[in-house]
Amino acid sequence: xxxxxxxxxxxxxxxxxxxxxxxxxxxxxxxxxxxxxxxxxxxxxxxxxxxxxxxxxxxxxxxxxxxxxxxxxxxxxxxxxxxxxxxxxxxxxxxxxxxxxxxxxxxxxxxxxxxxxxxxxxxxxxxxxxxxxxxxxxxxxxxxxxxxxxxxxxxxxxxxxxxxxxxxxxxxxxxxxxxxxxxxxxxxxxxxxxxx
Length: 196
What we know:
Residues 16-143 form the CinA C-terminal domain. By secondary structure, the chain is an alpha/beta fold. The chain is 41% helix and 21% strand.
């Protein structure tokens, strides 16, 4: 029971975060798209649980397979061959791929891309420990002030990545990944960092 209450509290916290992010995106005329590996659709679920999310959240590409990351999202095959899927640059390219994949006419410069990749566990994968995760956000140029971003500038986007070390079971790592990406996106969109 104790674990279930904690999970329920986290889920309701995630719902509040997702709702706040969606509201901020509406205020800023921004859209969201995701690409997911270890979370397998949980990132999308965090947003679509909120009624009315469809006016901001465009969709999520679940690219669990390494080749799908290249063929669907455009992640550089050489990068995947050299480093595998669990790498900060892979997360950045996945986020960029999501933003591009879901950008339709009229969406240009408005789609933020999100991504998750990592080792959910229960054991290590290719020498990387369970709980090692990279999340990334692709922010179109001009959406946020440059000094608030940092990250890699590429093709009209700032690509931000974050390394996470999450403890616990496979499910806790997956849900913790979503939570941490929501927290980082919420911080990034905080009003104090937005253009006047």
